[in-house]
Each structure stands twice: as structure tokens, then as C-alpha cells.
């Protein structure tokens, strides 16, 4: 089998006696539109933290395009193309949307990420940042500071920032959380319009969004893969329905 964009082998993590990842063998294929679902506390965020290197595993390995990155520091994995957004957003709140998005873009283009405002004056940085802002339909907010934006809009800025890194893999931890339901279509359109050379893994509790976006779904329960398949297979899986989906899909 050819190498996946991102893969885990026997990935395990313990917090004391609590096993939050159990022998997880997972493949995120090139071009993937993949969702990771499961009940609260199943270990979804922890799994992302293991993929990004925010946490070291207790056992097992993480491979990026076939190369073992298990011991690689988080910042180096970012440079290799693993980008993520957080369940709780982390933005420079006093800076504008454009300034925030210019940071990763200027860093990637090697034009001094430390000096936000100066870096932001470079035409190629500004053009690229505005292109990303456009993907998230944030053009009208480009000059506004983060603190002035509604929370849902802030979450979209986070995605623009992650895209600023030109990632090979994009990991989205509950991107729809806090976005008013009338606006989740902006998020859905944005992630649906991402180029296929970015493999996307999304953690989401909004099943409507999951089933509209994902081409493959993995169900995590108590740190272990409980089921995996196409949306049709997952929706038809009686055990998954009983354990997690409940009545959510019983139309
Ligand atoms: N740093 C930590 N130390 C100890 N326990 C932790 C730590 N981080 C997470 N946990 C525990 O690990 C388990 C999995 O947590 P995690 O946040 O990965 O779940 P989740 O699937 O993302 O849940 P949610 O859907 O609520 O976001 C939980 O029981 C949590 O309390
Ligand atoms: Mg979580």
C-alpha cells in the first residue's frame, strides 16, 4: 500500500491510568476529506495533539508521507506541512484580521514573521493574505481587529491563518463550535473549496456538517477506533448509531 499523507501505527497515549489513545492505526490519505467523530472525552483532541507533536505518545508512531515524525518537535512538523486549528481560538486579539493572516504568510515566505506590520507591507504577503481572507469570505473584516469580530468570524480567521502556512495536512478541531448555525454554510463552503492537495481531517459534533463534508468517517470511542468507513457505511452501522449517533440520523 502506498504511504498515506499522514498515518499512525499503534499510537497510544496514557494520562496516568487513563488510556486516551489505544493502538490507533489511522490513515489520512492524500486529498482526504475525513471526519473524526466520537463522544465527549473520546480522545479526539488528544489524537490531534499526538499528530501535531503537542503531546508525545506513550507508544506507537506518526508518519508524514511515509516518514517517521514521531519525535519531531511541533514547530518542525508545522514546517513540514501539518497545520491545525484549535478548539478554543488563539489569535492576536489586538491585531487586525489582515495582520493576523500576514503572520504565517510572511513567515512561510521568509520575510520576517516577527515584525507583523512591516512584513504586512510586502505586496506579495498582502496579496496572499487577502486571497486566503477571500476564501473565508472575510474581505469586509480584513481591517477590523479580532476583538471587534463576532466569535464565529474569529473561528474563520483561524482557518485563514492555518492556510497561511500552505499546509499539506489541515487538522480542524471543532471549527463550527461557536459559529451561529445560519453561518456554518460559510465554513462548509470554505473547507469544501480548499484545494485537493490539502488533506483535511475535521473533528466535529455537528453531524449535518460532518455528513455533508466527509468522504470518510472514523468513530473514536474511549481512545480506540470503533468504526471507520464511508458516510453511508457509518450511517448504516447499528453499533455506531447506538453508541454515538443516537437519533441524530433517524430522519
Ligand atoms: N493533559 C491531560 N491530562 C490528563 N487527562 C487529560 C489531558 N488532556 C485530556 N485528558 C483527558 O483525556 C480524555 C480525552 O480528552 P480529549 O480532550 O482528547 O477528548 P475529546 O474527544 O476531544 O472530547 P470533546 O469532544 O469534549 O472535545 C478526557 O477524559 C480528558 O479529561
Ligand atoms: Mg476535543
Entry keywords:
single chain, 251 residues, alpha/beta, Rossmann fold, 4-stranded antiparallel beta sheet, 10 strands, 35% helix, binds adenosine-5'-triphosphate, binds magnesium ion
Summarize the structure.
The protein is α/β, with parallel strands linked by helices and 251 residues long. Helix content is 35%, strand content 24%.
Account of the 3D structure:
- The protein is of the alpha/beta class and 251 residues long.
- It has a domain at 29-90 and 150-245: 3-Layer(aba) Sandwich (Rossmann fold), CATH 3.40.50.
- The protein has helices at residues 44-52, 74-79, 97-108, 116-120, 123-135, 151-163, 184-192, 207-213, 231-236, 238-245; strands at residues 6-15, 18-28, 33-37, 59-64, 67-68, 82-85, 169-173, 199-203, 216-221, 224-229.
- It has a six-stranded mixed β-sheet with strand order 6-7-8-3-9-10, with helices on both faces. A four-stranded antiparallel β-sheet has the order 2-1-4-5, covered by helices on one side.
- A hairpin with a 2-residue loop joins β9 (216-221) and β10.
- It binds adenosine-5'-triphosphate and magnesium ion.
- Magnesium ion binds at residues 44-45, 87.
Amino acid at each position: 500500500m502506498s504511504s498515506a499523507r499522514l498515518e499512525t501505527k499503534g499510537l497510544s497515549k496514557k494520562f496516568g491510568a487513563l488510556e486516551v489513545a489505544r493502538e490507533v492505526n489511522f490513515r489520512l490519505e492524500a486529498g482526504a476529506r475525513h471526519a473524526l467523530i466520537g463522544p465527549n472525552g473520546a480522545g479526539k483532541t488528544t489524537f490531534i495533539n499526538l499528530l501535531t507533536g503537542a503531546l508525545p505518545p506513550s507508544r506507537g508512531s506518526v508518519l508524514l508521507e511515509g516518514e517517521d515524525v514521531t519525535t519531531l518537535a511541533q514547530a518542525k512538523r508545522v514546517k513540514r506541512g501539518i497545520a491545525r486549528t484549535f478548539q478554543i481560538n488563539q489569535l492576536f486579539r489586538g491585531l487586525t484580521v489582515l495582520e493576523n493572516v500576514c503572520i504565517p504568510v510572511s513567515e512561510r515566505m521568509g520575510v520576517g514573521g516577527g515584525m507583523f506590520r512591516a512584513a504586512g507591507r510586502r505586496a506579495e504577503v498582502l496579496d496572499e493574505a487577502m486571497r486566503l481572507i477571500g476564501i473565508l469570505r472575510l474581505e469586509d473584516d480584513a481591517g477590523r481587529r479580532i476583538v471587534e469580530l463576532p466569535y464565529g468570524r474569529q473561528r474563520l480567521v483561524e482557518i485563514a491563518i492555518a492556510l497561511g502556512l500552505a499546509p499539506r495536512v489541515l487538522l480542524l478541531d471543532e471549527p463550527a463550535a461557536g459559529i451561529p448555525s445560519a453561518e456554518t454554510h460559510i465554513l462548509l463552503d470554505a473547507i469544501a473549496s480548499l484545494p485537493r492537495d490539502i488533506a483535511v481531517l475535521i473533528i466535529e459534533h455537528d453531524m449535518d456538517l460532518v455528513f455533508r463534508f466527509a468522504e470518510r468517517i472514523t468513530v473514536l470511542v474511549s481512545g480506540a477506533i470503533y468504526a471507520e468507513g464511508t458516510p453511508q457505511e457509518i450511517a448504516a452501522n447499528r453499533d455506531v448509531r447506538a453508541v454515538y449517533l443516537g437519533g441524530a440520523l433517524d430522519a
